[in-house]
Queue: 2 jobs
Job 1
Amino acid sequence: MTEPILSNTLTAYAQHAGSMRPDMLAMVEQGYRRRRRRQKAGSAAAGLAVVAVIAVVAAVHPFRSTGSVPLPPAASVGVTAPSAPSSPMPTSPRPSTSAARTVLQPLKCPIVSGTPESAPEVLAQLTAASQVNEYQAAHVDPTTMDSRLHGVLPDVHVPLPMLKALAADVSSWTSTCISNDSLAYGTMQVSQAVNDQMNERFQTTLDRLQPADNIALGTAYLEYLTVHFGIVHFHNDFDLTTNIPLRDAVLAAYDVGMGAVETSGTIHIGPIGQQFVTTVVGLMKPANEVQKVWGR
Amino acid sequence: MTVESTFAEFVRDRGPSLFRYGYVLTGNVHDADDLVQDALIRLRGAWTRVDRQDDPTGYVRTTMARLHISAWRRRRREWLTSAVPDTAVDDTRLATVGDGGADTTIWQLLAMLPPRQRAVIVLRYYERLTDEEIAETLGVTRGTIRSQAFRALEKLRTEPGLIQLQGGRS
């Protein structure tokens, strides 16, 4: 049954098919979540319908009074309260789950190496760091910067809520936190590579093992990412409070790396980076303020 | 490795090949994208099981072949929307294939085959599966595969240039 002409044609066309859409994985994950939600909703509705049918059958069944028909426990609500037809269904658990969803719980730090600083101390350091613009600090030489800045040092600030939420997600504000792979340390989970890179870029001598320096390094790295993405993709718009695509790109890059976000010259946030962005942005909302969540 | 990361790795590694397969099944890039996406969503739901026990590529290829001929899928109603989801793609590379020769003719004839017959042709001559394997993939008997292939080849033979096409009787 060899038919080379058909095989050759199909192979030739397949070779020229071009490439799959670049956001396929994200679309699949999105479709999968939608499908699962629909299935859950369907099965929950079916489950409630079964309970309702059993309750109705039990209520009108002649054998009910003899107790000879064993009923599943779920039906007992309908059986013991047949005189209240206005609420035959058991109370739905939905409100409690939606309430739980509004309060995000950041991950706990995997390895705590020593006594961490207290929350007020961390807050003070974060507040101080958010007010510093490493680019405009006195020790930066403008000539070492990207020529697209035209010698003007960028006015970039990391907003305090963003810094607080990010620190909450990566280390739950634990100044002595070590990552699972033992590469990142501190409140901002700074690696040695980032430490060296930032010290070289801003001509500083910060040490990631010192709590305040760690936060300064993490903030400097955020500023560096902001300026990079701002120059390349956003016409030098560095405002992290109004430029939401920039903010998301910076957050995703902090988690998965700049190269992973900037594929083939455009910004593309993958599912893992998107998950990180969603969590941090969720923690930035006033209702989820870090102190409220932890009761600190 | 989490479920998400192993699945992402699979899509990264096998996605392009699955897309090419979807392209020869459907005949155009938009339907190929849709088909791959639908099949991957189904694979994602079964990922932990399939990744552990079976061959995920075989699983998703089977899913794609079956989705392609699914009557439910074809009858699915379109959603009306004000935003056009598709953008034009550069299809000029296709013009270089065959230069209007036998390849182009076959490709055009394949586009006129019903989905099931096209699926049989693709599985036989692109995936190079045996009739038994095709029967298993599509969930029908070997006899059905042979008759579908025979009819498909008969249609292709109506083109004078392809009169020498064999197959269907083996």
Job 2
Amino acid sequence: MTGRGVDEPGPGREAALRARGHVEGVLFALPEIPLALDRVGVRDRLLRVIQYLYAVLDSAVTATVHLDGLSQGAVMVAEARELLAATGDATTLPPLDAAIGRLRSVEDILRRGAEAVSEIQFARRDELSVGKLGALPSARPFRASMGVPRLHSFARQPLLPHVVVEPKVPLLEAAPPATVISRPKSFGDLAALVADATSGALEARLREAPVEPPVRPPPEPLPFPYVCAVGEAEVLRRVGHDCLEDIANSRNLRKPNATESWVDQGPFEQRLLDNLDAFAALGGSVLPLVSLFHAEAEAPDPERAFAVALALGCIEGSDTVGAAVMTLKQSPPEELPGWLDGFKLASSPAVDAAMAELCASPRPELVALALDVLHERGTTPDAAVVALLNRIEPEIARRMARALGTALPRNQAIEHLEKLCTQASDDDTFLAALESLLLRGHSPAFDILRRLVDAPHEGARNRRALPLLCFVGRANDHDRLLRAVAAAPTARLLRAIGRFGHVGSLAMLLDHLKHEDADVVAAAAEALMRITGAPLRETVEERWEVQLPPEAVDAAGIPIPTRKVERIVTDPERWSAWVEDNARRFDTKVKTRGGVPFSPLQIVDEIEATSTPPERREDAAWELALVTGMTFPFSPHDWVARQKEHLGALRPRVAAVRSPRGAWPAPSRRPREDTEPTSRRPVSRTPVGPAQQGTTPPSPKLDAQLGSGAVPTEAAPVRGATTLPTPLASTSAARAPATTEPLSAFAPGPALPFVAGAMPAIEATPQPTVVAPAGGTDTMPIFGPPPPARAALGPLAPVAPLGEGAPAPADTAGPPPSRRRRKGNFTLDQYAALCAEIAVFPENVEEAFTRYGLANERKRLATDTRWKNRLRQNSADRAAWERLYLGYHAFFLDQARGRGRH
Amino acid sequence: VVGVGARTASGLTARQVTMSARAHKFEPRVSHLIDHAGEEIATARLASIGDDVMGIERFVALGAPALVQAVYPWASFHGGTAPRVPVFVALPSEMRPGLDPRLKPHLLEALSARAGVPLDLSRSALVFGCRGGGVVAFERAVAELRQGNSEVVLVGGIDTYFDPAVLEHLDRERRLHGPETENGFVPGEGAGFVLLALRGRAPGLHRYAAILSTATTAEPRPWGAAEPSLGLGVTLAVRRAAKAVAGTRRIRWVLTDVANERHRVDEWAYATARNHTAFGEDLLHEQPLLKTGDIGAASAAVLVVMAAIRWQSECAAGDPVLVVTHSDGPERGAMLVSREAAS
């Protein structure tokens, strides 16, 4: 039971899989047999059979244990069948008859399998290897879990699952008392016992009088003896039970509440892992406790299911995971979410094999669970997908469609996905297939998507396809999306419009700030913020969501506590004024996010930001996959430590995608993934080439509102070229939001509508910032609220120019002040140069800050705040900063063009 | 350190004790003993030892298994030819009410018999010094080892507060944690043993840790003194122990026996402040006894065992670790222990 699984097909493996299904069926049917029988004896024999079958599944066909497992399994099945047959007349009891029949089938399957394997082994006798029935993975040194669970392996007995076999129906007769005979201790004893049993003498004697066990002489007493109050195993079980309870409770504790970010899950996860380690440290004697812990629940309990799946899924060996799966099969459907959470987070590779085998279950809900687990772990095997292609149950078909987004070679997957799109009557399956086609970069899928969006009569499909088009659509989809919004505005669609990033949507979004539905208004404001990065945030008092006790409600309520949160402004007038003042910055041909041309790195920023709510992180991860065509192991539901690790690896991959800033997704240029079909596995892909730009003209409605010529039309999709800040219009300064936090007033999030300020004050950790070019009062250097590791300001060392001898910025006295460093405070010149460099080269932000000597986040934030305050209070400085900024920005753009980066 | 063993209410082995404390497993159980208010007294005691087992029987039941764990790797390495091992065992102060008089004459023999380990009784000793005496036992063990008469030396501590006389005394002094004494401690019990060998003299054994220094002092104003303690004793002990890494490393991880009692908290706070140059800015002070119950004379050995296991399982908070213990009496002790590369 190595837990590593041997996937080599063969008659032995096939027989073991088939036999195990039947044996499990008999085990689960035992409670239905209304006879007094040795249920425990039958159960234990059948569990032993399962243990033998694990040995077969975990060994190669050339291993002697492969054959032994089949042979011994057949013998043990025969014993169990004999026990059942001896209990009553099977012809009059259908459950008994069915059980005996199934066991006879199992015996036959195993014997045939053994024969086939023996022939193979004879033919390949030079390759034979040994093995041992019931062998377990070798013990490894104990290592504690830090951030992610360790796979523990220690000396122990094989774990047999807990199966409830007590009768569910009234018995027809009373059970006879169990008889115990003494265990033979030598070959002589054994031979005598065999003779005694085969002659019938033993049976006759047992009928007459029970055999008394031999009395052993008491051992010699040790000094100062005492009698144990309870066995030491019981001590360990108590501690183990305590650990399991805490693991179960941690399922929900690790999910962030309204005031927490995704990284705040970390300490709770470590607490969970501490309990997991403490449980593993107790050793094998507590493992049988796990299934009992699940069984003792009086009502369906997903938390207990989570604890069972995770605790057993972190102990090496297929027997432990197998025991968890057996418990799963006996659990109610309400617990499936808990099983999913536990298995997906578990460390044992045996979980993957067990889930792949579970895909063959006749119960659709179990297959669905198995596919979900494999999807979350990124280990969906092609073989399982192929085997399920013909399953038509909606819950399976839907997940198969999702799996085909990464499983199987591309052409093969597309063929199946197109078939699913054509044949699926279920909306979920259809949309999952469509999403997978888009993920595969299949160009015709975009046409399907557009046709669907153009067909409002499609109802639910139409509504659900709209956000998808926002993720992958191009500029010329803008009118199509506007029509859809006009027909049926929803919060989800408006938020997706924000991701779409077309500045022609601004007028429509402004209109929806006046909508009667508060959710729609909030979504419109979020979309506006996502597109423009405007510094329009305000601090508001928000009431906690509390459920008042009935007596308080009857007494006309009590004062509900409030907390300060920072929200995006939803005042239509303030937004309209801001948009009017800044319209010249935007270009309808450019996909815009946070006020700057879109870059996939902005999505990584969003995922990393602690201010991003969990559901937006899911959206962002999905958008990243669709936009870049990458497959990656990152999941927003993973352990925090692993998320950080994956994001660290993801950032340079995304940065390496040489997509022009502001480019719309271009499916026809997406690289194909014929060589790496495995889901969520990092793949190296050809960088995406320059995409065609959208051709949609500026929205007439926006034009009408903003005035003719407000939207520039000449802008090309050159990095930063359309985002140079313009001098601040005097009117906009007067309209600056009075209630906005000082930092955020000048630090709108270019990519993120959420800031740390959205959390209560106690959560307000300093946020690193990202520089982006902008204009207006709002033309101050715009520092977004963004990824912790990415950007922030501090005392500046001079900018290192990108090339020595490069032409000096037009409006400055020379090249960026990297060679003009002086000790002391940061100069305006340096500040402008740094802002411009980061705006043009966001992927080099860390390098730039390092060159400026911005050693830590605190210094960056302090410098940022100091300069923002100064520029806000001093118009001369502000004008100077803008002049310098423009000069450096142009300088860096020239540098970038000279390097052929645009 | 080439062998470790421990046993407390929440674990039967060194690893279980360490990992249970790390996971905050702590569940005191009420007993049949009644406090001054008529409430049942709860203690953190091992469930496998009956409540009718007290005195030397309880000490042996606690200590022998921990001793076996510590000596087992070395004994199995030698097979049946292992020489006799000297052992130094820290025990409660002889002043403790209700202390079983049979401990002094019989404990070592009983431990040897129960553990099945041949102990060199002629070179072994019991140290009656409560928590601070635990470090004294280490000092004596190291001295014995350095004399070169023994290949290895066992050192440890055993203690239990589960005794009517002790609990009555603590209750009378309002030192038991309860509704009226929130800064009291939860009485516990446990045992810890460590097998020491000179570096290079124990080939083939896993090297858990190295004892860099030990220091013991006497507090002039211990618990019960007329004047409040200024923490001079423990300050001096820490200063002496920390000398082993002075100028080379800052201490960032401290394990102490501070378990909620105000006077122990204060003493440790003074010692930290007065030795601030020895500590790193990110000093982590862990108090595992809050999760095991106060284990008295076993504290020093169990804390060393915990550090060793944390290093072995790669979840330690630093290297080296300073182990500090305070007795109710004047004994104060500090030890600096470092991670040792696995052999």
